[in-house]
Design brief:
The protein is of the alpha+beta class and 138 residues long. It has one domain. The protein has three helices and five strands; from the N terminus they run βββββααα. The strands form two sheets. A three-stranded antiparallel sheet has the order 1-3-2, with no helix packed on it. The chain has a two-stranded antiparallel sheet with strand order 4-5. Strand 4 and strand 5 form a beta hairpin. It binds iron/sulfur cluster (2 copies). The site of one iron/sulfur cluster has 13 residues, from loops.
Amino acid sequence: MSEITNPCISCGACCAHFRVSFYWAEAQDAGGVVPTELTEPLSLLMRNMIGTNTRTPRCIALEGEIGGCVSCGIYEQRPTPCREFAMSGENGEWNEACDRARARHGLPALFHPSLPVMTESYAAAGASELPEHVQSPG
Ligand code: SF4
Ligand code: SF4
């Protein structure tokens, strides 16, 4: 068993940095799974998670303290962008957006292509556990 803890469970930065928008039909009132009451219209065809379309974003579904212990209140029902957002270093890939969100909240970068050792370490933690920032987060 790996002793490396998934960094997402002590981060949550991406849930408080980006506008989380998605096709409107992902919401429950259109047949999807995302709780409609946690979303708001963005355009004719798009919705976003409430709280993420502001100057100081924080998704309404994010629970806990960023950089401390966090979780997603709707982990199984989170929208596509959340499901597709990879932790930097996952599968050996640098996700600049992840590290940028972390930097915005004063958290260190997880990965850089020049640091392959970190990549192997996080890969060993298990990609299937990612992103648990949103597990009950991301
Ligand atoms: S994906 Fe990156 S920014 Fe988002 S919670 Fe995980 S480590 Fe933090
Ligand atoms: S993973 Fe959850 S808390 Fe994070 S932005 Fe998506 S819905 Fe919000």
